[in-house]
Amino acid sequence: LGQLSMPNEESLLPALLSYTAEIAKTVGFSSRDCYKIQLAVEEACVHVMKTSFHPGEMADYQVEYTGRLD
């Protein structure tokens, strides 16, 4: 479904979460489930940024969207 390379900047999370919601809607998730998916992605990305990088380190991480479109 897609893959993004994201800088480890929390200020960019809203754009990532908007993209996540659009993908979830496209594959047929309800609004409620889209919100839950966004929350899970946000928690996972914040965890990655806080535990995988040194303070002040500028780097990217990958977000991959997989699934079936039927």
Tell me roughly what share of residues is in helical segments.
40-55%
The number of distinct β-strands equals: 2
Order of helices and strands: EHHE
Straight-line N-to-C gap: 12 Å
Question: What is the helix tally?
Answer: 2
Shape: elongated
Structural class: alpha+beta
The overall pLDDT, averaged over residues, is 92
Radius of gyration: 13 Å
Biggest sheet layout: 2 strands, antiparallel
Q: Which range does the strand content fall in?
A: 15-25%
Structure description:
- With 70 residues, the chain is of the alpha+beta class.
- It contains 2 helices and 2 strands, in the order βααβ.
- It has helices at 13-26, 31-52, and strands spanning 2-7, 60-65.
- The protein has a two-stranded antiparallel sheet.
- Helix 1 (13-26) packs antiparallel against helix 2.
- It is elongated and about 40 Å long.
- It starts with a strand and ends in a 5-residue tail after the last strand.
